[in-house]
Write a structure and sequence with these properties.
The protein has 68 residues and is mainly beta. The chain contains no helices and 2 strands.
């Protein structure tokens, strides 16, 4: 069974890293606006993590969430 979810896009008007927390994550100071475009995420159960993009040229190591 596959579920699909909207992933609205945003434009950063301002983005600054202001500190690093004890857990290594960054503290951000940001301002942004949502825009009327975005992606659709389709998710299904699997025994293996697979991330694919509808634009095949963006697949593989170019997908940033693979590094998470």
């Amino acid at each position: 069974m596959m579920n699909s979810y909207p992933a609205p896009a945003k434009v950063n008007l301002h983005l600054a890293i202001t500190d690093i927390r004890d857990d290594g994550l960054h503290v951000l100071d940001t301002s942004f606006v949502y825009v009327d475009v975005g992606d659709v995420l389709s998710i299904s159960l699997s025994n293996k993590l697979q991330v694919r993009c509808s634009d095949a040229s963006l697949n593989g190591q170019k997908i940033l969430c693979i590094e998470c």
